[in-house]
Amino acid sequence: MLMRHCLRYASILLLATGLAACGGSSSSGGGDGSPSASASKATTLGTRGETSQPYGRSAGNAKAVWTDYDPPMTHAGGTALPTQFITMRDGVRLAVSVTLPADESGQAAAGPFPVILVQTSYNLVMGQFVSAIGGADPYMTRHGYATVIVDVRGTGNSGGTWAAFGEDEQGDYAEVVDWVVSQPWSNDRIGLYGVSYLGITSVLTAAQQHPAVKAAFPIVPIGDGYRDIVFTGGQVNPTFIPIWMGLVTGLGIFDFAALQADPAMGVQTLVEHLLGAVLGFQVPTILKALLGEENTVYDGDFWRVRSPIEQAASIKVPTFVVGGLHDLFQRSEPMWFERLKDRVPTKLLIGPWSHIAAAGVPDDGLPADGVPAMNHILLHWFDQYVKGLDVGADKIPNVTQYVKGLERYVTTTDWPHPQVRAERLFLRGDKSLNATAPTGDEATSMVIQHPIGGICSQSLSQWTAGLLGLLPLPCFTDDGADQVPSAVFSTPVMTEDYYINGPIQADIWISTTALESGLSVRVSDYDPATGKSAPLSNGLLTASLRAVDESRSRYIGDEMIQPWHPFTKASVLPVKPNEPMLLPVEIFPTSAMIAKGHQLRVAISASNVGQGLQPLPTLLKGLLGAITIHNSAEYPSSVVLPVVPASALQ
C-alpha cells in the first residue's frame, strides 16, 4: 500500500508535466512594435507556417445537449500480456505493454479488438498504479478495447536517448502503429489517447495519417512548445520544465521490465538514459535556456518540431480536445479546436482544471452540469469513430467551457464564441479602467523591476502543473497579495453581469530606467464585498521581444486581440532607458463572468516567476530598474477584452 501511494505521489509530480515590427516591412506597425490600424476583419491566430485566416462560424449543432453514454459492458475484465519490445529502424528497442479484454477467469477473450494506443514518457510500469500516466482503463477494457502502452525512446523501459518529441521519436510513432496493426488481437482500428505528454504523442501520431488511426482523444495537449510554456513571452519556465525533465529522467532509472526481460539490455538502457540526460538533452537544454544560448532562447526549428499545432492541417481523424482554464497549455487548447473544426469532426471541453486536475488528480469533478464522466465521453467518442457505431457522438455540443464566476459548464457552437466582440478599456491615471480614452496627461504608475513577482500566486500553482495548488494556501485562489507591489486598475462596479470568453490583449506603454524589462499582466475578478480578487488569466512579455507580426495576429473587428510575437533574434528591438515603448502582451484565453457588483481588475508588474524568468544575460540588463506605466493621450495604455452578451449564458 505504501508503495502504491508513493508511486501515485510521483505521478502527480510527473504530470505537474522581415516583419513589420522589425523595422521596414509594411506588414507591421511602427518600429516600436506597436500594432497599426487595420481594416475590419475577424481572423484566426496564425502559426509559424501559416498566416492568420478569416474565420467563419459553426452553424450546426446549435441545440446539442450532453447525454451520458454508458452502455453495458461486453467483457468481465482484462488481462495484461508480458512486456514486449519493438525494434525500431535504428535498432532501438521500445517497451510495450498490452492489455486485452478477458472473461471472469482472466482468460483473454477472442479478438480481434479495436485498440487504444498510448505513448508515454512516464514508464509503463508506473501506469499500473495510475492509469493517467500510461495504463489501461478497466472501463474501456470491459467495453471491448485492447490497450497498448509504449515507452517512447529514451524513457521508461525503452532504449535510446530521449529528446522530447524530437524527430527520431516522432519517426517511431508510425512504426509503433505498424506493429499494432500486425498483431493478431488487433482489428486494424486504432484510437489515440492520453493525458499531457501522452496527449501530445496522440496529436503528433494522428498527423502522420496512418490509415489504421481512426480517432484521437488528447487531454491537455501542448500546441506551441515555445509560446505555451517553455518560453512564454520570451522567458524560460523555471518551475514545471526542470521538474518535468528531472522526473522523466528519474522514472527512466526504474526500467523494471527491461531488466527482467534481459538484464544486460536493461543495464545498457539505464546507462543510455543517464548519459542522455547529462550529456544529451535534459541538462544541456536547461543550461542553454538559462544562459541565453541563441538557438534555444529564440524561436526556430528546434521549437517548430516540438510544436504539434504546426501539423494541425495534417490531422484527418475526428479529434476530441480536453483543456483546462489553469492548465499548462491553456493558450493552445481552444486553438486546437479552431484549427481542426473545419477539417474533421472536433469537440472541445475546457474545465476549471490545472494540469493534474484534468488528469483526475486528485479529481476532475465530473460528472457535473450534465457533462458526463471523462471515460464515458471517451467511450462515446471511440465507439462512434473507432468502432464505427452510430451512437450520436457527433451530436455532443461543439464547445463546452467552464465559466468562472458563474461556476458551471456552458455549451456553445464555436470558439471563439459566435457572439464575441472586442472591447477596449483604457488604463487611467486615477487607476480606473474604462472605455474613455485619456485626452491629456495623467498620473503615471511605477513598479520596481525584480524577478520574483508572483512567488505565491495562482500562477505558481498553475506552472507547477497544479501540484502546489494542492496546498491550502489562500494566495493560490486570491491575487490580492500579489497585487500589493503591482499597479492595479479596476473597472467601476458592474451594474450587470459581464461575460468574457477568449484571449485578451494588453497594450501597455512603459518606459524603464534599465536596458531591459519584463512585463506581467494579470486579469482578475474582484469582489468588493469580500475583498477577494479571483485570478482569471495572465500574460508575460520581455520588452526587447515586443515585435508583432500582424499577418499572424488575431483580430476581432478592427481590434487586434491576440498578438503574434516572432521571438526570433532578428525581431529583437532596442530598449532605451526612459523612452516610452508599447508592449502588446498576449494574455491567455479564459471564460469568466464578472458578476453584477464585482469589478474586473488588471494588475501590472515586472515579473511572474512561476511562469517565466528571463535568461541570465537578459535578466542582468533589467535588474535594479523601475518601470513607468504611461496612460496619457500620447501613450494610452489599454486592454482589449473578448466580450460576449451575458444572455448567452442562459
From TrEMBL:
Signal peptide: 1-20
Keyword annotations from UniProtKB, A to Z: Hydrolase, Signal
PROSITE patterns from the UniProt entry: PROKAR_LIPOPROTEIN
Keyword Hydrolase: yes
Name of the protein: Peptidase S15
Stretches with biased composition (Polar residues): 43-55
Annotated source species: Amnimonas aquatica
Domain of life assignment: Bacteria
A molecular function (GO) term: dipeptidyl-peptidase activity
UniProt keyword annotation of Hydrolase present: yes
Residues annotated as domain Xaa-Pro dipeptidyl-peptidase C-terminal: 379-640
SUPFAM superfamilies: alpha/beta-Hydrolases, Galactose-binding domain-like
Annotated segments matching region Disordered: 25-59
